[in-house]
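Expect chain and fold; thus:
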Amino acid sequence: MMNLRIIPDVVEESTIHGLRDNDSVLDGANLMDRHDISAVVIFDEDGKLTGIVTERDLARRVLADGLDPETTPLSDVMTDNPDTLSPDDAVYDALELMRTRRYRHLPVVKESKIVAMVSIRDLYESVQDALEQSMRETEALVFSGDNNNQ
């Protein structure tokens, strides 16, 4: 259980949908809706990660501030230069980073390319699954040993 890694234990490598920083907030919201995702990565013209925009950003930095989603560029509301995870990062380290920095989503980067997006929910589910498996194994060991003592 202590050796859970982001890939493949939590998420698989996948195509990550992103936009440019000059695309509109409405473009970002539409992309999230179309792909049923909660965060969009922002790339520069060279394909380098420059930011991330989440549903929370849209609520707090656009709606709450009364900005027009059609004319507001993503660069105005994105988190610049977001922290990232590596596929080999330990789940517990990722959870601690997300907890302390209050993140809900982080891009997973391999060789300068975004290969996945992980959510705090993904991480908690993987830890819960691992704990449940560990408990089942422990119970099986304990109860199988009880039969020998009767």
About this structure: Residues 15-82 form a domain with the CBS-domain fold (CATH 3.10.580.10).
